Amino acid sequence: xxxxxxxxxxGCQMNEYDSDRLSRxxxxxxxxxxxxxxxxxxVLLNTCSVxxxxxxxxxxxxxxxxxxxxxxxxxxxxxxGCVAQQRGVDLLERFAGLDLVLGPREIGNFRVIxxxxxxxxxxxxxxxxxxKPVSFFGGFEYFKHTVKAFITIMxxxxxxxxxxxxxxxxxxxxxxxxxxxxxxxxxxxxxxxKEITLLGQNVNSYAYGNTRFxxxxxxxxxxxxxxxxxxxxxxxxxxxPELIQSFARLEKLCPxxxxxxxxxSNRVLKAxxxxxxxxxxxxxxxxxxxxRPGIAVTSDVMAGFPxxxxxxxxxxxxxxxxxxxxxxxxxxYSDREGTPAxxxxxxxxxxxxxxxxxxxxxxxxxxxxxxxxxxxxxxLEVLVEGTSKKGQGLTGRTATNKVVNFINDxxxxxxxxxxxxKRASFNSLWGELTSEET
Length: 438
Ligand code: 5AD
Ligand code: SF4
Known about the structure:
Blueprint: E1 3-9, H1 13-28, E2 31-33, E3 42-47, H2 52-66, H3 68-71, E4 76-81, H4 82-87, H5 89-94, E5 100-102, H6 110-119, E6 124-126, E7 148-152, E8 154-155, H7 166-170, E9 174-175, H8 178-190, E10 195-199, E11 207-208, E12 211-212, H9 213-221, E13 228-232, H10 241-249, E14 256-258, H11 266-271, H12 278-291, E15 296-303, H13 310-323, E16 327-332, H14 350-373, E17 379-387, E18 394-398, E19 403-406, E20 416-424, E21 429-435
Parallel strand pairs: 1-2, 1-3, 3-4, 4-5, 5-6, 7-10, 10-13, 14-15, 15-16, 19-21
Antiparallel strand pairs: 8-9, 11-12, 17-18, 17-20, 18-19, 20-21
Helix pairs in contact: 10-12, 13-14
This protein binds 5'-deoxyadenosine and iron/sulfur cluster (SF4).
């Protein structure tokens, strides 16, 4: 009888990519995917620990999933991702039903580890691999029938921003060989993928032999059949002039950059150990906008870092007003055990953090809405991804990564088409077809 697996993914796109690799390996081992954990023989939770809230969510979900064991003692329960790496064997102690704790760098060895777990007896905690290079495998057929795919090009981070847990859980920066990445991309293209997003905690630091990130982008740009390239995330400190020029030179590189700024005050940026000033950040945005007029800029920002004064926070609001981001991901600062910021003085009370976050989000809402409304009447190129969640329409994204919904028949799925924007809200745009496939 076929065995079944259930997988649930929390957190970032790198986790989504990892979950796909894990799913593929499970399917190669004879498992079929199910959407209900109660019907599964193998249950896997891929977790995130970047903020305290994400970690709590992962632990409470794990607690619920562990109860499945009471109904069916034969079900295997595994936890992967950053919480697995960070909490390690503690998780095996805390959750009696847990069979496997799998760190992000052990995913390449999952097949072997799975066999050991299936043999039973031992509860393996595969978390000792932070210093190891990322181990990948050939094939990569899992993204079948989708228009968009991810490729993780590097893992880890060497920056040690003072608030961030990532360097402790994802380890040091390790890049994958360019030939392997190009092969993976070619495979995806053969399966019908039109858009590839290159992933890494800090893609600008990609380095393998003589190949730097801008070189890798250039090679990707030459791949026949690929229509769009994106990447995330970049660090302002490492955004090189060559990379900025890539936006002018490479026609497949989408006019969108996600460039986290975190704070608008130089004093706070210094305490965060970010390695750039607000002036430098604004210069980078100017250079990007000169290289590729109309480039969309999105960012991450935090409210309530330890010691953040009202004046510091005003500087964050001021930077948001001056840059006018297309979209902003904003977070309340949260203490992460083991990071320098967790030990800093001047912690901001929760209510004040929340009030600042609200002010910031209110400001950004107006900016996003204004920018989206400016697009009304324009004809934009949209890569059609599928049917929209609501209604019978289709959905896709502009090159600037904005969601566009429109009504039409399904023959446009996975095609690039032009859509004239008719209405705009905070979250998405709504339009009508302008012309046939480009
Ligand atoms: N508290 C709040 N937000 C954080 N981020 C990272 N660490 C923390 C923390 N300790 C945010 C940053 C980062 C995004 C992925 O998560 O803004 O860019
Ligand atoms: Fe964390 Fe800073 Fe590395 Fe980003 S660059 S993952 S914020 S340490």
